[in-house]
Amino acid sequence: MSLILNKIDGKEISYVTLKLNQIDESYLNVYSINLIAGKNFEFQNRQNSERAMINQTAVKVLDFKKANDIVGHFVTDTRNRPIKIIGVISDFHQESFRQTIRPMIFLSENRCPLATQHTRIIRCS
Q: What is the DSSP letter of 41?
């Protein structure tokens, strides 16, 4: 599933397609993915629906030079929903190693109104 962005901080941009992933706050830790800038989703804060993390490839595609530069900015999808970028994670292969890493956006699985497919992490005590 994909999310198409058309604005950054309210300014029109050329359409950018990002691979959409629904995750929870455990995802980065479980898969040993590095948080490059910003912060992860918080278990205590279930108001994550309008916040997202993106990967390093998405930072480049959105024309930002450094990961820190995009944190705190708002991107808007074609449904006119503003989404605050709270973090940037390292690139990783989610598909075949033969494919180039696509620009990705990660929304909280708990309150994501934009998608029906998701990745679920089950926590074992």
A: -
Range of the domain at 89: 2-108
At residue 53, the 3 state secondary structure works out as strand
One-letter amino acid of 121: I
The verdict on residue 54 lying in a domain is yes
Structural domain count of the chain: 1
Collapsed DSSP state (helix, strand, coil) of residue 29? helix
Q: What is the pLDDT of residues 96-121, one digit of tens each?
A: 889 999 999 999 876 544 444 444 43
What's the pLDDT score for residue 117? 44
Chain centroid offset of residue 93 CA:
15
Question: Which residue from 41, 44, 45 is spatially nearest to 26, judged by alpha carbons?
Answer: 41
Asked whether residue 53 is domain-assigned, the answer is yes
Q: State the Cα torsion 61-4-9-82 to the nearest 10°.
A: -140
Q: Which two tokens stand for residue 53?
A: 């993390």
In a domain, 123, yes or no: no
